[in-house]
Specification:
0% strand; disordered N terminus; single chain; disordered C terminus; 246 residues; MetI-like fold; mainly alpha; elongated
Amino acid sequence: MTSSAGQASSCVAANEWICAEYVRTRSQELADATVQHVWITAVSVGIALLIAFPLALLARRWRAAAGPILGLTTVLYTIPSLAMFALLLPVLGLSAAVVVTGLVLYSLTLLVRNILAGLASVPGETREAARGMGYGPVRLLLGVELPLALPGVLAGVRIATVSAVSLTTVGAIVGYGGLGNLIYSGMQTLFKPEVLTASVLCVLLAVLFDVALLGVQRLLTPWSRNRTRRRFGGRFAHRLRVGKAV
């Protein structure tokens, strides 16, 4: 009778899609690929957010700049990922910077548009009440507009992050694709357990990122849970007026 250990290990030799023995024997390799995938995604979205925020403010401040900014970020988003990485390779060399830069460029259109949408949805009466209280542009933005625009902003961050998790796999062409390296290697050798395990982990990463960011969004924007955001803005404006009257 074949032992359970023998049955488990035979799935590698049999090249079965679902193979616990592969996960056990390659656990370190899977962990390293997952860590690389996570940091590439997190760094890319973080840098993109730092760039998208001033671009969105510029587009809102000067209407003439809105068209070119939105148009350029949209054009960048339409470039196929393989072509994008190929264009960046001669400039940045064979490094993780190729993947990070490509993901940053892809994330810009999602983030810029959602930041603009979030700021545009802030009730006008709230802005007027804040200005009446003597709020300057910076204080108005940081103390009033951004808190109320957070649902839209964080929705864009969630979309950009999930998209980055998926696109990171393409970085395997330059050796920095995280779990994509394993998917690419498994496809070349037709090693089914490697392809399936890495693909499942990639999907789980996207789900975990999305759930975590949704939790952050709900924590930072409690008023949006019951669709009372506009009502909250109205009450905020009322409080500002009351404070001014006092």
